[in-house]
Amino acid sequence: RKLGVRATIYVPSSTPQFMQDILRREGATVCEKVGWNDVPVVAMETEGADCFHKAVEAGHPVTLHDIPAASITDDHRVLVEPSCGATLASVYSGVLDALLREERLQLDKEDAIVLIVCGGAGVSLELLRQWTADVKTKHG
């Protein structure tokens, strides 16, 4: 919105309506269904919140009962919900560079890489305090 650029945001069907409404108020078009079967996807999850990995291993959806709190603030001064910043791990760990170098992720020079870092709009001071208390309780 601030840059004057139109944005289309693709969200999973599980995205709460209030989050979709926030995106729309910011001027974005919100879509839930996409037919992009040919788009390569690299999935990154934080340890302890790796429900996709556990579901693939189990062969069915799973429920995680405890997800550790985490934040990514040092480089970008952005706070995100626990595990939502996992996408950045593909950059910081060198996984993305390795995939490109090994030609396991094939892109043309003009192709774009999109990193989805979600969950910041749901962070509040109250939640941050609760996560801090949870970490202190678990780790002394």
UniProtKB/TrEMBL annotation:
Query: Where does the source fall among the domains of life?
Result: Eukaryota
Q: Which UniProt keywords apply?
A: Lyase, Pyridoxal phosphate
What InterPro entries does the entry give? Ser/Thr_Dehydratase, TrpB-like_PALP_sf
State if Lyase is listed as a keyword.
Answer: yes
Names of the cofactor(s): pyridoxal 5'-phosphate
Q: Which Gene3D superfamilies match?
A: 3.40.50.1100
SUPFAM superfamilies documented for this protein: Tryptophan synthase beta subunit-like PLP-dependent enzymes (SSF53686)
The UniProt family comment states: Belongs to the serine/threonine dehydratase family.
- What is this enzyme's catalytic activity, as reactions? L-serine = pyruvate + NH4(+)
Q: What is this protein called?
A: L-serine ammonia-lyase
Q: Which taxonomic lineage does the organism of this UniProt entry have?
A: Eukaryota, Metazoa, Ecdysozoa, Scalidophora, Priapulida
Q: What is its EC number?
A: 4.3.1.17
Q: Which organism is it from?
A: Priapulus caudatus
